[in-house]
Amino acid sequence: MSVKAYRPTTPGQRGMTTQDNSMITAKKPIKSLVRVNKSKAGRNNTGRITVRHRGAGVKKFYRIVDFNLANGTKATVEAIEYDPNRSARIARIKDDKGNYNYVIAGATMKVGQKIESGDKAAIELGNRLSLEIIPEGSSIYNIELNPGRGGQMVRSAGASAQLMAKDNGYAQIRLPSGEVRTVNLKCKANVGVVGNEQHQNVKIGKAGRRRRQGWRPSVRGKAMNAVDHPHGGGDGGAHGVGRNPKTPWGQPTLGYKTRRRKDTDKYIIRKRQEAKRR
């Protein structure tokens, strides 16, 4: 997959790029694997905004993706499709029983390819196996954190993790962030790399395109009134002078740890911050 530049017929198109969709082989999804995805505009079930700067955007249906392909599944890739809800492409597969499913498409997945799931499957790109079966040094994606729960890590476009070592029933995996953590060997993962690798190189180009993606404008804290943000207010334009940086809710920021899950620290061998210092 490559990145295509627009011919700038308007000022907004100058510098804008888009994805080359030549890999996509089907334009419409299967109706049985689609459901309505109502826009929440960043609000929770009580109506409060929990994610700022979201709203509007183009309407899009949610594709039901199977992140935990059942053991013994043997399927054929019938189409590679676009999914508006994720950066990766999805593959429409049909198993031996005639059932259709969507899975995360690997970089090498093609129409007509045979894929399998289970410990008896061959160690080939696109197949889904337990970590205890996959050789050390392999690139993997769509990794489980708990056996049988389905893939939760390494699912975005172009992402892959590396299986580094196995010891005492756990596998050591180096994640795209540089973090090294242990995962139970009974957990499953797909062999290979997630497709659509050039997604990160696409240039949005103009504000209107970003709005259609569901992002609304953001305002600097120091441009607000004191009642609206800790950085706001100030006489004569002296915004934020002599103040420590804070979030909109008054919590200190910059240099403070934001991780709250202390119960999983024991599984982390090397934190991502340590990997960046090297």
Descriptive notes:
With 278 residues, this protein is mostly beta strands. It has a single domain, classed as Nucleic acid-binding proteins (OB fold (Dihydrolipoamide Acetyltransferase, E2P)). It is 4% helix and 24% strand. The protein is built from 2 helices and 17 strands. It has helices at residues 207-212, 272-277; strands spanning 3-5, 17-19, 34-35, 62-63, 74-81, 90-95, 100-104, 114-116, 128-130, 139-141, 143-144, 151-153, 161-167, 170-174, 180-184, 188-191, 268-270. The strands form 5 sheets. It has a 7-stranded antiparallel β-sheet with strand order 9-16-10-13-14-15-17. It is globular and about 70 Å long. The two termini are 31 Å apart.
Q: Main attributes?
A:
single chain, 278 residues, mainly beta, OB fold (Dihydrolipoamide Acetyltransferase, E2P), 4-stranded antiparallel sheet, 4% helix, globular
- C-alpha Rg, in Å? 22 Å
What is the beta-strand fraction? 15-25%
Structural domains: how many: 1
Structural class: mainly beta
CATH architecture: Beta Barrel
Name the CATH superfamily classification. Answer: Nucleic acid-binding proteins
Placed side by side, the strands forming the largest sheet appear as 9-16-10-13-14-15-17
What is CATH's topology name?
OB fold (Dihydrolipoamide Acetyltransferase, E2P)
CATH top level assignment: Mainly Beta
**End-to-end separation:** 31 Å
* Uncertain residue segments: none
Tell me the overall shape.
Answer: globular
